[in-house]
Amino acid sequence: MKIIVDDLRGPEIAALLEAHLDLMRSQSPPESVHALDLDSLRQPDITFWTAWENGELLGCGALKQMHDGQGEIKSMHTAKIARGKGIAAKLLTHLEDHARSMDLTRLSLETGTQDGFVPARTLYTKFGYAPCPPFGDYAEDPNSTFMTKQLSG
């Protein structure tokens, strides 16, 4: 598997992100969907990666650089055909390694509270993320779980 920085221009990533947004919209009320579309991901403070194998797009993830040495994990999604194969774990490891190379000291994320988000919450917990209060511009929301992980000092 190859993980690359993606320019968000290919039709495969557009389709995968649309599937991601559709899934988020099907599981959360509109006011609680915090997934970003293509244009929102094309920001200078966001780095976006895709995972590929044999020319097939398997998944994606993004890292948004915040203030005070913090980052936010965004747009983690595994293609339906690739689920259960460890793609998300490999992407998360890659994002964390990149965050450390940028001297970020903390990563945080928002995910859903509904049953469909159990795999995501399980993955993040396995990687050492713990529940936290809302961060950044987020507000308390019964449909959101906020998690964070200290990377270093």
Polypeptide structure, described:
The protein has 153 residues and is α+β, with helices and mostly antiparallel strands. It has a single domain, classed as Aminopeptidase, CATH 3.40.630. It has helices at residues 11-27, 38-41, 87-101, 118-126; strands at 2-5, 46-53, 56-65, 70-78, 106-112, 130-131, 144-150. Strands 1-2-3-4-5-7-6 form a seven-stranded mixed sheet, sandwiched between helices. A hairpin with a 2-residue loop joins strand 2 and strand 3. The mean pLDDT is 94.
Write down the CATH topology: Aminopeptidase
What characterizes the major β-sheet? 7 strands, mixed
Q: What is the total domain count? A: 1
Instruction: Report the uncertain regions.
Output: none
- Helix fraction, binned, reads 25-40%
**CATH H-tier superfamily:** Gcn5-related N-acetyltransferase (GNAT)
Structural class: alpha+beta
Percentage of residues in DSSP E strands = 25-35%
Query: Which CATH first-tier class would you pick?
Result: Alpha Beta
**How many distinct helices?**
4
CATH architecture: 3-Layer(aba) Sandwich
What's the arrangement of secondary structure elements?
Elements lengths: L1 E4 L5 H17 L10 H4 L4 E8 L2 E10 L4 E9 L8 H15 L4 E7 L5 H9 L3 E2 L12 E7 L3
Parallel strand pairs: 4-5
Antiparallel strand pairs: 1-2, 2-3, 3-4, 5-7, 6-7
Quick recap:
The protein is of the alpha+beta class and 153 residues long.
What labels describe this entry?
153 residues; alpha+beta; 31% strand; Aminopeptidase; 29% helix
